[in-house]
Design goal:
11 strands; elongated; 246 residues; alpha/beta
Length: 246
């Protein structure tokens, strides 16, 4: 069965191009011309992924994303924002609303398809973990399947409280309360620096315990800002590894 994607844009030409590009790749497409209609379609059709413009009448993309995360029947659906503007402040607002990816128009078809594939694969891995896990107690898995950043994003969206244990060549702990980063420890580092040190780990295991804890709060920055900085660090390392390989 093909994945179902919801595309949202108030520009009919952009909507048509997105539908053609994604349909050719084998996806089933449902569409909406603004956020208000998209929210209704999302609850009815339950798409596997949403691609949405930001600037739209009635309900913009950021409000749509927030509503999907907070009050829809598919709060964890992968969400990609499209925009015509280079505005870091809007981008931050989008990620805080719960977006997974952010792309600037004009959209490169290959890049869009690559990001859609990556997010759908990640979503599939999360579903497998949920199905196999004893969710009242927690869950575990391998870092080769889900990165630490992806785990923190998932726990944040699920508003989970507990301790994320990371084990491998090195080990660490990340503490969360109601999905928000609270504290972390990794080698001699604490707080945000501990999180940034851990995100480089791509092998090892993780285990999340849903439990109460008594820890001093060492992460002062917002969870979304820490996630965004962690993503930047990961991107820089990947670029450096690619240059080294070449």
């Amino acid at each position: 069965m093909a994945y179902k994607l919801l595309v949202v844009d108030d520009n009919p030409n952009v909507l048509k191009l997105l539908k053609i590009s994604l349909s050719k790749a084998g996806y089933d497409i449902v569409e909406a011309e603004n956020g208000e209609i998209a929210l209704e379609v999302a609850n009815r059709e339950k798409p596997d992924l949403i691609v949405s413009d930001i600037m739209m009448p009635k309900m913009d993309g950021i409000e749509l994303c927030w509503m999907i995360r907070e009050s829809s029947e598919i709060p964890l659906v992968p969400f990609i924002f499209l925009t015509s503007f280079e505005d870091p402040e809007t981008e931050i607002r989008g990620f805080r609303a719960g977006a997974d990816e952010y792309m600037h128009k004009p959209i490169d078809r290959k890049e869009l398809l690559s990001r859609v594939t990556t997010l759908l694969e990640r979503s599939g891995k999360l579903k497998i973990i949920e199905e196999k896990s004893d969710l009242p107690k927690g869950f575990s898995g391998d870092l080769s399947d889900l990165s630490i950043v992806e785990l923190v994003q998932m726990l944040n969206l699920n508003k989970k409280s507990g301790i994320l244990h990371i084990s491998g060549a090195k080990s660490g702990k990340i503490y969360l309360k109601d999905g928000q980063l609270f504290s972390a420890e990794f080698e001699t580092k604490t707080g945000e620096e501990a999180v940034y040190g851990m995100v480089a780990m791509d092998s090892g295991t993780f285990n999340f315990d849903i439990t109460d804890f008594e820890e001093e709060k060492t992460i002062q920055n917002s969870t979304m800002n820490v996630i965004m900085e962690a993503c930047r660090i990961m991107d820089e390392r990947q670029e450096a590894d690619t240059e080294f390989d070449n």
